[in-house]
Amino acid sequence: MVSTDHDTLRHAPLSQVRAAIRDGTYRAHTAGLGAGYLQANLAILPSAHALDFMRFCQRNPKPCPLVGVSDTGNPMMTTLGHDIDIRTDVPAYTIYRDGTLTGTATDIADLWSDDMVAFALGCSFTFENALMQAGIPMWHIDNDTTVPMFRSSIDTVPAGPFSGKMVVSMRAVAPGHLDQVRAISQRFPLAHGGPVHWGDPAEIGIHDPQRPDWGDPAPIPDGHVPVFWACGVTPQVALESASPPICITHTPGHMLITDIPEDAETAILSQTPQ
Amino acid sequence: MVSTDHDTLRHAPLSQVRAAIRDGTYRAHTAGLGAGYLQANLAILPSAHALDFMRFCQRNPKPCPLVGVSDTGNPMMTTLGHDIDIRTDVPAYTIYRDGTLTGTATDIADLWSDDMVAFALGCSFTFENALMQAGIPMWHIDNDTTVPMFRSSIDTVPAGPFSGKMVVSMRAVAPGHLDQVRAISQRFPLAHGGPVHWGDPAEIGIHDPQRPDWGDPAPIPDGHVPVFWACGVTPQVALESASPPICITHTPGHMLITDIPEDAETAILSQTPQ
């Protein structure tokens, strides 16, 4: 098996990217790949937990924007692509048993069962791309680090066994850009939408913005405003607290790349406007 | 019991409207009531059908924009209002057994069970209000008729036993208003979003626009463009085809009025932006 690197795939068509992920030759993060296509977080659960998890997503649309749900036992994500097999088409998976991380994998064909449901949730790449296209710099991308993420004091709306605090990501924004940043990101409800907070981090329970709970620290230059978005790590925290017998997620940064254009009105293949 | 009429409630606060609906003194349609608040279609199903119906809504977000889902057996719609009891807070209900309409009711306290799940779906009132505020006339409202609705040739994306053609509503628009109408309605993804078709009705299987399948005929003045939106009758058609043992919907036009402002970013009480 020949491994494929990020630089090679950066300018490759989506079909080639997906093939390299599917055959296991590409196992790294997906930032910057499949340009223009919606990327998604992944959560796979036994069907007994599916209705409650789907309710949790519906009730927490900013951290958990549902973009696709498989049929029970069917690994094909038919509404997100013409040929997406959720067992192989994510570069790296993380496996939890009873709420505890027990391993990672580059495909999950041996773990998939007739009782499983796969959920795809929108991710921040979409609004970050839109912000950068509008000339708003993203420090963590320019410096090749992971965006800082924090467990906030904001409660999610519980559903069955799923609950917990909202995880938020932080980006420092020049004050003159704040209104534009809010307006642009609000246009992407399937990618966390507008920010949930801006200004004093302590107001949402963040006491040291230089010590993120996940990701890397990022500077807040003098006069810049820290802006906080609901983050796709929130459902992972809720999944850990619900402790289903098995749960499979993508490994952070290693997302599902869909066939849905990033600016589509809906995340459904056959309902994109004529 | 003193009956309350539409004109009395038109300028009443939401709490008074809801109280009159709850105690059964108001049993008529809700157009123009609770101004500024999101109204919703209703579907109540046994829990065995809930996951498939929720998948159907996720896969068909234009006809079936999910705005609220109850816990199984809990009649309080906690994310849509501070005190919404789905058994009493809709003016008129329609009851289906095995897919067949068997009756109507003004409350369903005797039919609700511990096994039921209530789904609220956004409705066209929201984008119609926004269009009228922008100076776009709505002929069916000005003439006190029901918008014409048609069974189109557009297939919905099936989920389990739920499937069928998309039902669409039609509004004739002056050509100079078309772009504005599309842009405004697209801003309301929780209220059917942008139109699914405009122009020749035959392209979506509608051969006589003067003979709607539901609602009243409406003129298409010379030079006007017929514009078609996904319609909230679509899930009712899918529910009839799925034939659950029991299903309760609102009676057309007799909607659930929520506490969510019509222009909120999400339909979740506790997540409206600060």
Automatic annotation (TrEMBL), chains A, B:
<dbReference type="InterPro" id="IPR038021">
    <property type="entry name" value="Putative_hydro-lyase"/>
</dbReference>
<dbReference type="Pfam" id="PF07286">
    <property type="entry name" value="D-Glu_cyclase"/>
</dbReference>
<dbReference type="InterPro" id="IPR009906">
    <property type="entry name" value="D-Glu_cyclase"/>
</dbReference>
<comment type="similarity">
    <text>Belongs to the D-glutamate cyclase family.</text>
</comment>
<dbReference type="InterPro" id="IPR016938">
    <property type="entry name" value="UPF0317"/>
</dbReference>
<protein>
    <recommendedName>
        <fullName>Putative hydro-lyase ACFTOW_03585</fullName>
        <ecNumber>4.2.1.-</ecNumber>
    </recommendedName>
</protein>
<keyword id="KW-0456">Lyase</keyword>
